[in-house]
Design goal:
The structure is a homodimer of 450-residue chains. Chain A is an alpha/beta fold and 450 residues long. Chain A contains 12 helices and 26 strands. Chain A has helices at 10-22, 44-49, 63-68, 134-146, 159-170, 190-202, 248-252, 299-313, 343-348, 401-409, 414-418, 434-443, and strands at 2-6, 27-32, 73-76, 78-84, 89-94, 99-103, 106-109, 113-115, 128-130, 151-155, 174-178, 206-208, 213-219, 222-227, 230-234, 236-239, 243-245, 276-278, 285-286, 293-294, 327-331, 334-340, 353-355, 358-361, 372-380, 386-393.
Chain lengths: 450, 450
């Protein structure tokens, strides 16, 4: 049996490792267009923040290790350009120029996502970067080493933009964040996004919302960013307006696309083409809350999807039943966490969402290091079912969100969650965990009992 | 309506506050035998550790605040000695000597738990303490202030003993821990209890297991503890061999006792006597895992029980459906957490428990501050149902256990838990949260799928 995998990052390498482990005799070929495989994309901002840390420390496992100790035929610098799903052949070209082709019995498309480039002039100038690949990180880090970067403009305010505002500040760079819409973090509950906003301001980041990017050009002092009619000088510009699924290759091959233009897959990770599977940031998935297809590029989803794709490529029937949509990140000293649907997603999915943001302490009252946590569940008013949760605070947020993620997976109502026996000890929590307090107070806004 | 409550700690004050809030016109009388109400018992070791912190900072709400702003008729120094359940009258005596009696429409027994005193000579000597009440804390703290305490012997190795080993060490005292049984932490999985043991040894605590206490006497240098035929000199002795439910008053009144000699209550917090309810450390409760009655004195259970008892005393039918049995504590730099049944309890409850202790990182590989976490689920071999979880590590343990606590409440299997979308970001977790890794590896020991 010959398995071909397009893309050597989280999903692709999870799949190829599992294929080789479970079927050592099989031929497993991975085509990766870049020279890098299996690196911690989520760790990139933290690496950039630290001038002394080599970029290579982000590499979890080298191409050689996959080749030698696992027997995976991993071909870096191989760009697949076309899939013939009828003939079961992929065509491509190598970095050096020559073409290649390879037949497959089962194919996995794990092409990931790529940065969205704003459609304005100057995004290709020297000193203008985006951050999606390890190569992007290398370029940014080299630029910080070689040039005297004093000011940076970040376009966008998603979590990469936020993490990079911290990373660049850590390097002593003055950061200005520009974004198109007025609302800073539209997916967050307003009481919670205010906490993030205040943290950014307190840490010296300039926020400029409501300014659509118009162009970037050279200026005598470096770069000039024009947005909403205003001009901003900067030594470095980071474009972080978002990512899109890399689904063009699949789409060109006649494979159906789904949510947000990602490759549509079923519970068994299979695309619309026979023997073709997909996993990771290029594919869509199910929301366990709404039961609908969503596109949410997350590292755990990619790893899990790759693993399950491998099982199904080998003929098992293993289902990926969906994700809650759990994400955490850090912005300076503030931890931000969410799981499930946002208020807007919940309404769009036909629920009648209610929420109640509460402020509680991360530890027992007066215990050293206790910090205020802003926390809210989002629930359906009539059924009381938990649809989502969001949390922000300087301490005790990130791991706490998992209790809500499990509750969502178990389709719990607020009343059921309120019955949970969460951990208490003064160094870690008030007697009533902030999540229990939030559940109890939101209950009053639902048709459930108090 | 007249509500009488015996005991002014967590359960008693939660109940009386709720009664007054929901029924402001009702008469709510609380009889508390000590002078203290509503203090953080769990915070006592941390307070003792800090010479500069007044003992009063443990008081959450003063007796005056309950009286004046909530209108609760709170009578401290009132010891109830007898309950006439037929006549609906309680009898007692005040600290000053005179007797009192009070009729009730509904009665709540919230007498808590008390320290078990080993049945040997010398437990009443000066310099010998136990730690259950605020008054106990006061005595220990005063003794540390007035005397030059250089060495301490702690009898027992439960969580109060462990927390006090840290507190006394923080005061510069050399601590020796003596316990009867050979096994240090018999309820813990052996791989995990070794971590706690090593931490204690590393922090300079002398461990002396397998030595039954024989007596305590004065010695020229202070106190002499004899245990297992050996003698230990100490300036201070702490008896921490465990606690027992304060159920004698109820038992004398003919009220049925249940698990471990605690007052037996139904889901509506009602005892076997009409109009008599019980909550907190003196009462038993249901395990959501086994469905059986257990006795597990926990602060959240007492607060929740008090609140639910109030609702039921007012005629509502609100059920307490049980607890998972979640507990966390800190021993020096190690966090210890458990939820659900222990291996022994699981076997005794008719399950066929399996476990697999794994070591994972608390944060992403190589991320600053990442610490090894030892974690294990305990599951039923045939059904794969999660029965318990235990975790030990220097970072990222305490709040993480809540995900397992919710899973237990939702009666999840390991496979179901493994599908959960837990949070990932390098500062907080590996891509696969340690709990997911533990679930995945234990799955292989069950009849479930991998």
């Amino acid at each position: 049996m010959r398995y071909v995998i397009i893309g050597g990052d989280a999903a692709g390498m999870s799949a190829s490792s599992r294929l080789k482990r479970r079927e050592p005799g099989a031929e497993v070929i991975v085509f990766e267009k870049t020279g890098d495989v299996s690196y911690s994309a989520c760790g990139m901002p933290y690496n950039i923040a630290d001038a002394d840390k080599p970029i290579e420390s982000l590499i979890v496992r080298s191409a050689e290790a996959f080749r030698n100790s696992q027997g995976i035929d991993l071909r870096t610098g191989h760009l697949v350009r076309k899939i013939d799903t009828e003939a079961h052949i992929v065509y491509g070209s190598v970095t050096s120029g020559e073409d290649f082709e390879a037949g497959y019995d089962r194919l996995l498309i794990a092409t990931g996502a790529s940065s969205i480039l704003p459609d304005v002039a100057g995004t290709d100038l020297d000193g203008v970067f985006s951050l999606k690949t390890l190569e992007d990180s290398r370029k940014i880090k080299t630029s910080l080493e070689k040039n005297d970067v004093k000011t940076a403009v970040i376009i966008g305010m998603g979590y990469i933009a936020l993490e990079m505002s911290e990373a660049l500040s850590a390097r002593g760079i003055e950061v200005t964040m520009i974004k198109k819409r007025e609302q800073l973090l539209p997916w967050m509950l307003p009481e919670l996004s205010d906490v993030v906003k205040n943290e950014l301001i307190e840490k010296g980041v300039s926020l400029e919302p409501g300014l659509p990017l118009e162009g970037i050009e050279h200026s005598p002092n470096g770069l000039k960013v024009t947005a909403g009619g205003r001009a901003f000088e900067a030594d470095l510009v980071l474009l972080a307006v978002g990512v899109k699924p890399e689904s063009g290759l699949a789409s060109d091959a006649g494979i159906e696309l789904g949510a947000s233009g990602a490759i549509s897959i079923d519970r068994n990770m299979q695309t619309s083409a026979p023997d073709v599977f997909s996993a990771g940031d290029c594919a869509d998935c199910l929301s366990v809350v709404s039961g609908k297809k969503i596109w949410l590029p997350l590292a755990l989803t990619a790893n899990r999807g790759g693993r399950l794709a491998a099982d199904n490529m080998m003929g098992d029937r293993q289902s990926f039943n969906g994700i809650a949509g759990t994400a955490v990140f850090k912005v300076f000293d503030v931890e931000v966490a969410k799981t499930g649907l946002t208020l807007g997603e919940a309404a769009a999915s036909g629920f009648e969402p209610v929420y109640k943001a509460v402020v509680a302490k991360s530890k027992a009252h007066l215990f050293e290091g206790a910090a205020p946590i802003h926390v809210s569940f989002i629930a359906d008013r009539t059924s009381g079912r938990i649809l989502g949760a969001q949390m922000v605070g300087k301490e005790g947020v990130a791991r706490r969100i998992n209790a809500a993620a499990v509750a969502i997976q178990a389709r719990m109502t607020l009343s059921e969650f309120y019955e949970c026996d969460l951990a208490y000890a003064p160094p870690f929590s008030p007697v009533w965990d902030p999540l229990l307090t939030a559940a109890s107070l939101l209950l009053k806004k639902t048709d459930g009992k108090v």
